[in-house]
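Justification of computing resources. Each target in the renewal requires a structure prediction run like the one illustrated here; the chain below, 157 residues long, is used simply to show the kind of job we budget for.
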Amino acid sequence: MRNEEKSWKQLWSVQVPAKIRMFLWRLSKQSIQTNDVRAHKHMASSSACNMCGSPDSWRHSLLECTMSTCTWGLVDEELAQTMATITEPGAKQWLFTLMSSLSHALFVKLAVTLAIWAAPRKAIHEGIFQGTQTIHGFINRYIEELNMLTEPTRTPN
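Resulting C-alpha cells:
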C-alpha cells in the first residue's frame, strides 16, 4: 500500500496543468469514456472503436488505434521503446510503472501525448479531423510552453 500511496503522490505532483493530471487520474481509474466503458454503462450500442472498428479500451484508444500509433511514431524514440516494454493490463499500474521508470521530463511528454485521446473524440463528436503532424506539432508546442512556465525566472545581474 505504501508504494501505491507514493505513486499517487508522485502522480499528483507531475508538473502539468490540472486538466492533464485529472485525465491521468481518470485513466488510472479506467473511467475515460471509451466505447467499452460507454457500452458497459448502456451509453453506446457497441464497444467497437469508432475510428477503426476494433474492440475499444483505454489501451486501444491511447496506444493501439491507428491514429494513436501514428502519433506515437512521431514521439521520442526512448519513450516509445519504454512504453512498448510495459505490458501491465491495468491503466493504473501501467501509469505507475512508467512514472517510476521514466525521467520527469519524459513522463510529462507521455502525459501530454496521452491527450491525443481528445483528437479522435473531436473527429467522432465534432467532425474535426486532425492529422498526426498537426497533433504532433500541438504536443511539441504545448510541452515548450510548459517548459517556459516551469523554468525558474532569471533576474538580470
